[in-house]
């Protein structure tokens, strides 16, 4: 897998992410991808070869290793990283779709055209939903893999010694896991970073939802204020003229009271 290309694609997410999203991306690449690339090969490289059992019975060692390591840590982490980071590409694809739609609209309407989007990368409408759903999906993927690790390896740790009674082992055989302490440390580190990423994703979702609710309430309040202001102006205009016995009487501030001319009779 070409991690350089993968990193270049995901680095574009920074332009469309919030502060929580940028922190999440930094944690993924620095504390998960780099640690995975630099340590996994050395810690788990010759794992099956170094797995030793107190017997020379053909097939016993392979059967015991497959029982206690049904899925390799290395492959599980690689699959987890792929599933966690792929939803971020959906945001880039959605923005690219908006840009292409805006370009076609500009070509169709000419220079003096009205833009479809005031800000293409602004998280509104469908892009907001794409972004929020991608965050929920990433948090769910991390949670599912944490559960899988817990089911396969109890308490996320590996013992130094395991006892195997599977066929074709002749009896209860003691098997030794190589570098179990080192593996436990790296496993716990990867679990901790996964939990941190889940927290960051949930914080970002909460931030986006709260921000959107505030904007909706602010827009509703502004509409109510504008509407009440127009109603008050209309009411003042209607009260400027009041009819008394069918004759209009002007009560405006700039209106003069009616005058009556009386002719002097000689």
Automatic annotation (TrEMBL):
Connexin N-terminal domain location: 42-75
Transmembrane regions listed in the UniProt entry: 23-44, 77-97, 128-153, 186-210
Keyword Cytoplasm: no
GO biological process: cell-cell signaling
A Gene Ontology molecular function term of the record: gap junction channel activity
InterPro entries registered for this protein in UniProt: Connexin, Connexin_CCC, Connexin_CS, Connexin_N, Connexin_N_sf
Top-level division of the source organism's lineage: Eukaryota
Chain ranges of the Connexin cysteine-rich domain: 141-208
Compartment(s) where it occurs, according to its Swiss-Prot or TrEMBL record: Cell junction, Gap junction; Cell membrane
Pfam families linked: Connexin
Matching SMART domains: CNX (SM00037), Connexin_CCC (SM01089)
Protein topology in the membrane: Multi-pass membrane protein
Cellular component aspect of the GO annotation: connexin complex
Keywords tagged on the record: Cell junction, Cell membrane, Gap junction, Membrane, Transmembrane, Transmembrane helix
PANTHER family xref list: CONNEXIN, GAP JUNCTION PROTEIN
Protein name: Gap junction protein
């Amino acid at each position: 897998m070409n991690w350089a290309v993968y990193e270049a694609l995901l680095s574009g997410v920074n332009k469309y992410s919030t502060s929580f999203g940028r922190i999440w991306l930094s944690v993924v690449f620095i504390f998960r991808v780099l640690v995975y690339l630099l340590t996994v090969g050395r810690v788990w490289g010759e794992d099956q070869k170094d797995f030793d059992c107190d017997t020379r019975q053909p097939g016993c060692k392979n059967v015991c290793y497959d029982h206690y390591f049904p899925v390799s840590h290395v492959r599980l982490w690689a699959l987890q990283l792929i599933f966690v980071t792929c939803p971020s590409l959906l945001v880039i694809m959605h923005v690219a779709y908006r840009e292409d739609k805006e370009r076609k609209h500009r070509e169709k309407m000419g220079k003096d055209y009205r833009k479809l989007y005031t800000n293409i990368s602004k998280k509104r409408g469908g892009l907001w939903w794409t972004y929020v759903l991608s965050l929920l999906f990433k948090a769910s993927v991390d949670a599912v893999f944490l559960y899988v690790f817990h089911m396969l390896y109890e308490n996320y740790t590996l013992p130094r010694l395991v006892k195997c009674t599977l066929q074709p082992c002749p009896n209860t055989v003691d098997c030794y896991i190589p570098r179990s302490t080192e593996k436990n440390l790296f496993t716990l580190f990867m679990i901790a970073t996964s939990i941190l990423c889940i927290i960051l994703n949930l914080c970002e979702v909460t931030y986006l939802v709260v921000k959107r609710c505030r904007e909706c309430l602010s827009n509703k309040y502004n509409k109510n204020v504008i509407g009440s202001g127009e109603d008050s102006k209309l009411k003042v205009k209607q009260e400027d003229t009041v009819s008394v016995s069918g004759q209009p009487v002007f009560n405006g501030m700039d209106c003069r009271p009616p005058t009556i001319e009386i002719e002097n009779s000689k």
